[in-house]
Write a structure and sequence with these properties.
The structure holds 2 protein chains of 2 kinds. Chain A is α+β, with helices and mostly antiparallel strands. Chain A has one domain. Chain A contains 2 helices and 7 strands, in the order αβββββββα. In chain A, a hairpin with a 4-residue loop joins β3 and β4. The C terminus of chain A is likely disordered. Chain B is an all-alpha fold. Chain B has one domain. Chain B has a two-stranded antiparallel sheet with strand order 1-2. The longest helix of chain B has 31 residues. Chain B is globular. The chains are: A alpha+beta, B mainly alpha. At the A-B interface, α1 of A face α4 of B.
Chain lengths: 201, 203
């Protein structure tokens, strides 16, 4: 066989073989990977909307999903807003819990981030950062308290804390939260947030 | 063709030709994911899997691949096994997959793997190639464990997630940050070089 033909034949067959091999592997693991993601989201909903017994997906689009946390009787006791946006280095994905009127925050959880370890990565730290996001008045856009406060008492009800040395990460989280809250409010006004949507479980 | 015995083929990867300490290969994952022992170990295992299977496949089909397209062929073979490792971790060990992040897909460009295909598997029998891959992987895992143990103990006060340092210990945060990786690797390389010199002068 001519060399040029042989080169094409060999590379093509290696490509085809590895392609079909990978398609099989992808098919076999797809369901499990999706299940892992779903479990992670369910765990986060329970964390950010305390008292949730079951949850329901109310809305979904790119970078924004809204879940309703329900109590024993099936009443929605709060929203869990899953949103993502750009942080200092990469996407930050978070889950914000609010009450059912969208006026108070319950809890914030960071699901995924690749901020600088020791600095921006402190956005995942409860005592350092996340505790300052509890019970905030979010009927107006939240603002950052600069310089960083050392206890939640120093903040006004619409303020959240900054991380010293990681202002960009703090601002990124703030803008994701404010942006998603505004979007969800708009969705409610437009009547797009129906509670008839499919169940998460 | 190599003239070593099968045993020597395995042993050389542990020290004489240790990929990290002696050949200085695969330093990207070595520096990046050794901030915790579990991450270093998982990365070592993923690399082991990819290296062994790539060596197996490359050494079995080495005669079929024209030398002009050998690198491209090796990369496709390596990338396939890397994707398998990546999917496997995401499906069965999601927390590890998350903490290793982009470094699992980056095994594709780990020089240890391509280096062994080019330097060894493409010239030796299947048996020897797999033995060589096993030895190199063992040497790599060993290096990852030493590095990550030092960094995790000093940087977080834990080993494999278990607290090993008393409450008096204040973690050296720098050890789990990139500078800690460079400092630790530098010191370990200096020690490795010193040991090598001593043994040579004794001979």
């Amino acid at each position: 066989m001519k060399l040029s033909v042989r080169m094409v034949v060999v590379l093509t067959s290696i490509g085809l073989l590895s392609g079909s091999f990978l398609a099989t592997v992808g098919h076999l693991t797809k369901e499990r990977i999706a299940l892992n993601k779903q479990r992670e989201i369910e765990a986060a909903i329970i964390q950010v909307v305390p008292g949730t017994v079951s949850s329901q997906r109310l809305y979904e689009e790119r970078d924004l999903s809204v879940y309703g946390g329900k109590d024993n009787e099936g009443n929605i006791i709060g929203f869990a807003i899953h949103a993502s946006g750009i942080g200092f280095q990469d996407k930050i994905s978070l889950m914000l819990g609010t009450n059912s009127s969208l006026e108070r925050t319950n809890r914030l959880a960071i699901l995924d981030q690749k901020e600088t370890p020791g600095l921006g990565a402190k956005i995942t730290d409860y005592e350092f950062f996340l505790t300052y996001w509890e019970n905030r008045d979010c009927s107006v856009p939240l603002t950052l308290h600069k310089p960083a406060a050392s206890s939640p008492e120093e903040l006004s009800p619409t303020e959240v804390n900054t991380i010293t040395g990681a202002t960009i990460s703090s601002e990124a989280v703030l803008s994701i939260v404010n942006g998603s809250l505004e979007q969800v409010r708009k969705l409610i006004q437009e009547g797009k947030l129906s509670s008839e949507a499919q169940d998460v479980n | 063709m190599s003239t070593k015995t099968i045993g020597q083929e395995f042993i050389k990867g542990l020290w004489d030709e240790n990929p990290v300490f002696r050949q200085l290969l695969g330093l990207c994952p070595t520096l990046a994911v050794t901030n915790a022992v579990i991450n270093g170990f998982a990365m070592g295992m993923a690399t082991t899997f990819v290296l062994i299977f790539s060596s197996l496949v490359v050494s079995s089909i080495k005669k079929l691949i024209p030398s002009q397209v050998r690198i491209a062929s090796y990369i496709v073979i390596i990338a396939s096994f890397v994707t398998v490792a990546d999917r496997f971790l995401a499906a069965f060990f999601p927390p590890i997959s998350k903490s290793l992040g982009p470094y699992v897909p980056l095994i594709v460009v780990n020089c240890i793997i391509l280096g062994r295909q080019e330097a060894f598997s493409s010239k030796n029998t299947v048996g020897r190639s797999v033995t060589d891959a096993l030895g190199m992987s063992a040497g790599f895992v060993l290096a990852m464990l030493v590095l990550s143990a030092i960094r995790e103990i000093l940087g977080a006060g834990t080993f494999f997630g278990y607290q090993v340092m008393g409450p008096w210990f204040k973690p050296w945060i720098i050890m789990i940050l990139p500078p800690g990786a460079f400092i630790t690797l530098g010191i370990l390389l200096a020690i490795a070089l010193q040991i090598e010199r001593r043994t040579k002068s004794r001979k």
